[in-house]
Amino acid sequence: MSGRIGVVDRATLDQFRSGDATAVKAVYQEFGGPVFAVAYNILRDRDLAADASQQTFLKAWRAASDYDPERSFGPWIYSIARRTAIDLYRKRRRLHASADVDGQTHDPGIEAAWEVFEVRAALEKLPDAERVVVHLSHLEGLSHVEIARHLGIPVGTVKSRSHRAHQRLATLLDHLNDS
User: Fold this and answer.
1) CB of 64 within 8 A of CB of 28?
2) 6, 7, 43, 44: which could join 48 in a potential S-S bond, CB 3.0 to 4.6 Å?
3) Rounded-to-integer distance, Cα 175 and Cα 59, Å
C-alpha cells in the first residue's frame, strides 16, 4: 500500500481478485473513505451512505474476479458505489412517495429539488481529484490539513484543488443566482 489514497499495489489487487479476505480488507481501508463520499454525495444521509458503502464492498468482493487489473481500480469501485447509492436513493424515494400519498411527508418544492439536482450535477462535472477534496471538506467536515493527511498529498495541493473546485462550481452554478 502507498500513502496516497486510491492506490493499491498490483499484488494486493491480484489477491483481491481471488477473493482473499486480507486483500479485501486492505482495499476497504484504502477506498472506504472515497466510497463513502460518493454514496453520501448521492444520498445525503450518513446512515444510508454507510449502508451503501458496505453494500459496495460486498458487491465488489462478489464481482472481484470480473475486475480487469489493466484498468484503474478506483473508477471501478466508485462506479459500483454510485450505482449502489442510486439504487438506495430510488428505493428511499419510492418509500417516501408512498408516504406522501398517506400525507405523512411534505415535498420541499420543485424549485428546491431542482437546485439540489443542479448542485449534484455540477459536483459530478468536477475532476475526481477536486471532487474528493470538496466531499471531504464539506461532507466529512475535514480541514485542509486533515484532507492532506488523509489523501497523502501536500496541504498546498489540497488548497489549490479546493480553490479550483469552488471556482468551477461558482461558474457552473451561476445561473442559480438569477432565480
Assistant:
1) no
2) 43
3) 38
Q: Hunting for cell 430510488 — which residue is that? A: 90
Please state the pTM of the whole predicted model.
Answer: 0.52
Grid coordinates standing for 33?
A: 473513505
54-64 as b/e: b if 16+ CB within 10 A: bbbbeebbeeb
Question: Which grid cell sits at 110?
Answer: 420543485
Rounded Cα distance between 171 and 173, Å, is 5
Domains in the chain (CATH in brackets) are 1-106 (1.10.1740.10), 108-179 (1.10.10.10)
Using CB atoms within 10 A of its CB, is residue 106 exposed (0-12), middle (13-18) or buried (19+)? Answer: exposed
C-alpha to C-alpha distance for 63 and 103, rounded to whole angstroms: 41
List pLDDT tens digits, range 94-133. 776 665 555 554 555 666 677 777 888 888 899 999 999 9
Type of residue at 115: E
Cα(66)–Cα(13) distance, integer angstroms: 12
Please name which of 128, 156, 130 lies closest in space to residue 144, comparing C-alpha atoms.
156
| Separate counts of helices (H) and strands (E) for the chain | 8, 0
Render pLDDT for 27-62 as a digit per residue (tens, 0 to 9): 888 899 999 998 988 888 898 999 999 999 888 888
